Every structure is written in C-alpha cells, then in structure tokens.
Amino acid sequence: MQQKTPLVAPSILAADFGFLNQSVQMLNDSEADWLHLDIMDGSFVPNFSFGFPVIEAIRKSSTKPLDVHLMINEPDRYLQRFAQAGAHLISVHYEACTHLHRSIAAIKSLGCKAGVVLNPHTSVNLLDDILTEVDLVLIMSVNPGFGGQRFIENTYRKVRVLKEKLIARNASALIEIDGGVDLQNAAALVQAGADVLVAGSSVFSAKEPAKAISALKHCNTSSTIV
Ligand code: DX5
Ligand code: ZN
Asked: How much is the pLDDT for 133?
C-alpha cells in the first residue's frame, strides 16, 4: 500500500517572537511545507496574536507559502489586506461568516487559495453545499484561541466523514488539522484522510524543531520501509 506523506505547516504562534527571523530561517531550511499564521482579534476568540506588520516581515524572509488562519469576526473587511501582506492561502471560520460563499469567492478573486475552518462543535455536514468551492477545509482539533491545548479525539471521525464526502463529490479540497497535533496522533490523522498537519507546541517546544517537523512529515511511513 502506498504511504501518504502529509504536508506539514508549523504554527509560528508557538515560536519565540524575540527571535522570529531565526525561526523563519529554521523553517526555510526544514521540511516544513507551509508556515501557519494564526490571526486572533480578541473578539471571535479570547486572545490576540499578531497582524499585518508581522506577516509582512515573515513574508520577506520566508521561502514557504503562508497559510493564514483568520480567527476574526467580519473577515471580509480585511481579506485584501491579508492578501497584500503576503498570504498564499486564507482560511475563514464557518462560524464567523454569514455569507461564506461570498467570502470564499472574494479570497479567490484576490489570487489566494481559499479555506474554510470548522470549530470542534461544527459538523462537517454544514459544508455540503460549499465543498466543491473551497481549496481546503481546516478542522480544528482544539477550541481556537490558544496553542498548547489537548487534541480532541472526535476529530478522527470528522476527518473520515469529510474525506468520504470529498471523494463522493470528486472534490479536491485538502483536509488540514489544527490543534494539539503531535507524533501521538499524526499518523492516525493521515490515515483517516488528513492532508496537512498544523503543529505549534510539538515543533517549537522540541529540542530540535527541524527534526520534529521531519518526524511529522514522515509519521505515516512504515518503519519496515527503508
Ligand atoms: C489555535 C491555533 C493553532 C495553534 C496550534 O487557535 O489555530 O494553530 O497555534 O498550536 P498547537 O499545535 O500548540 O496546538
Ligand atoms: Zn491555526
């Protein structure tokens, strides 16, 4: 059986912001596929993170695509700014978009890939009428707002159901998982259908973050294969 290799998107939120440039260089030299940027507005989620100047600074030194996760209310107001700041992929929360179809179209019209994010309590069934429009579905495996939280086990079931729906519709959206992802759950997530793994704490709290990224990248590779 073919071993699927996931994309790995380290979350910069867990990096030491006093040494941001060094972290970006480390990620440039690592097997990371994307950089995951968590944007929090203190309203949609009970926390603030960072905004445009930080994204622009990262854009200047990063060689990898920027995967921007908007945990903000009324994201439509700022999509253009995020695209200008250097986002390659912009994901908006289902729970924050009254007119999700319009938001997805707006992201695409800016030349970015468009993703939709589901909170842990939000059913994948609610995406039935938009699945063929999105480039990515991000399933939150913690409640958004903070790094370092515990992985919610129901995520596996959501990934399996979503994967079946995508196959049934011949839709090409990637499935991304965010929150509490580490080597304990990574392989099972990939086997359930995940394509992209976001990892904050498990990467940046590791002694050697580049090795932690590599381990996630190859988490689904059978040890019997050399
Ligand atoms: C949570 C963020 C996540 C978070 C992941 O609100 O969306 O991207 O930074 O961090 P860990 O891997 O530590 O759960
Ligand atoms: Zn995130």
From this structure: 98
Q: Could you report the average pLDDT of every consecutive run of 10 residues in the chain (226 residues)?
A: 88 97 98 98 98 98 98 98 98 98 98 99 98 99 98 98 98 98 98 98 98 98 55
Q: Radius of gyration over alpha carbons of the chain, in Å?
A: 16
204 alpha carbon, closest ligand? 1
- CA distances in angstroms from 168 to 109, 128, 173, 177, listed in the order given: 27, 11, 12, 21
Range of the domain at 175: 7-217
> Is residue 180 situated within a structural domain?
yes
Name the residues around ion ligand 2, CB cutoff 5 A: 38, 69, 178
Token pair belonging to 8: 């790995």
- How many independent structural domains does the chain possess? 1
Q: How far is the CA of 38 from the centre of ligand 2 (A)?
A: 5
Ligand 1 centroid–CA 218 distance in Å is: 20
Distance 139 CA to ligand 2 centre (A): 10
pLDDT at 2: 63
List the alpha helices (DSSP H) in 68-131.
79-85, 100-109
CATH of the domain at 82: 3.20.20.70
Residues with CB under 6 A from ligand 1: 11, 13-14, 36, 38, 69, 142, 144-149, 178-181, 198-202
Q: Report pLDDT for 80.
A: 98
Kindly state whether residue 225 falls inside one of the protein's structural domains: no
